[in-house]
Amino acid sequence: MQGAEDKLNRLKDPSLVLIFTYAPAGLGHLRVTDALYHGLPKGITPLLLGSQDKSITYLHRLTSVSPLGRSIGEWFQSGLPERLFTCLYSRFLTLNSNLLFQQMLTLLDQRYVAPKKVIIVATHFALAHQLASIKDKLALARKIKIYLVVQVTDDSPQSIWYVPQADLIFVPSSRTREDLLTFARKNRLRETQIEVIPYPLSPRLTSTLSAASYQERVKQMSLEGKTDIQVAIPISGAAVGLDFTASLLEALHSLSSRFIFHIISKKASFTKSFIQKIEGKQFATVFSSVHDREVVDAYEKLYQEKVIALEITKPSEQAFKALLAPIQVGGTILLFSAPVGRQEYDNLEFLTRKGLVPFSWENEKLWEKTSDAAGNKKIQQFRGFCLPPDPLKSAKFIFWCLKTGIFARMMQTSNELGADGVDQFWQKVCQSFLG
């Protein structure tokens, strides 16, 4: 343990500059960045660099909210369209990296101690490709060593995530690693190092609950209990499924007044009416902010202040919280809305491979609320379910899981598949670049 700490302390070298980059494309990339930041030893102050490329924001919104945009986005996520998109978009990013180059020069030149090494962490493929295209030019201009580390934020082996000039790429599974390497070999790209580590979840969510807090979480999932059931509802950056969410919480609260909802959302034109509708409800609290970082912080603060039993969310990067056990702060039961985009389908496939959510046919059987499904011995190992597309059916399904004791059984698992992804990230970075 002491050796591991000593290795991480190498990150405190004053001649080393650590830079986190993120893109304005949803909150997932910032959540991962935040998790990695909180895994650093005390006394390290990394720099945070956000992309100024508006095309990233527009692309994310287009392929998330509009039904037509979603269809186009999914079409570009497989087969020949995916290969064309990867080729053209990576080329576009490379040709539009001059502003980022100037930003990086400014950051480096402002350092009091002249840097000798720079480690850049990218959690979005667009910034990763842009940084890769300027890395060598930056190193030559300032006569320093620059290392680019890419963290893939979904278990989705989309070819755009393969960055040939990256020094290290982290992925959540060996399947994604092999698929990305196969893509590189087929296209005769430079083969870079790809490591498999558990998904990097915030240390504030992986910490252990007190005995009293764990018992409170168990009581919330008891049908006989009178304890309020605390439900977290993080709204995605693209604000997908707001009508579904609004109808679901209304229906669920009508089935039991024990359900109390905590909504965390970005404040924007496309969330304004939703927030106004929810703010007047006595059974719901709302936090909203125009600043992405405040939204991410509020989500983790909620888990620090409340014992959350359920979370209704998209199968985006939030899906990986299924790796946590109920005894951990973030170890809630996850209830997933319909997936949007290939990456969310891939994330659900990851969870089914790990036995953390039912297969689709098992899930549909549960939606039918059959007694044999309720008695399924596999139930206890599950950490979440997919919800029916209809919000009223979803509410009835959730209440049925409570009433039949399914949720209570899921509170008893002690399985912890991977809560140390952040620590493994930094250990491998230090081993690779700091001797």
List keywords for this structure.
Rossmann fold; 435 residues; alpha/beta
Characterization of the model:
- This protein is an alpha/beta fold and 435 residues long.
- The chain has 2 domains: 2-201 and 419-433, Rossmann fold; 203-410, Rossmann fold (3-Layer(aba) Sandwich).
- The chain has 19 helices and 12 strands.
- Strand 1 (16-22), helix 2 and strand 2 (47-50) form a beta-alpha-beta unit.
Strand order of the largest sheet: 2-1-3-4-5-6
Overall radius of gyration? 22 Å
In the CATH scheme, the class of the largest domain would be Alpha Beta
Number of β-strand runs: 12
Q: Helicity level, as a percent range? A: 40-55%
Q: Based on Cα principal axes, name the global outline.
A: globular
What fold name stands as the CATH topology of the largest domain?
A: Rossmann fold
CATH architecture descriptor name of the largest domain? 3-Layer(aba) Sandwich
How far from one another are the termini? 18 Å
The helix count comes to: 19
How many domains? The number is 2
* Binned strand content: 5-15%
Q: Give the biggest beta sheet.
A: 6 strands, parallel
Helix- and strand-based class?
A: alpha/beta
- Poorly predicted tracts of residues: none
What's the overall average pLDDT, rounded?
A: 87
Quick gist of this model?
With 435 residues, the protein is an alpha/beta fold. The protein contains 19 helices and twelve strands. It folds into two domains: 215 residues, Rossmann fold (3-Layer(aba) Sandwich); 208 residues, 3-Layer(aba) Sandwich (Rossmann fold).
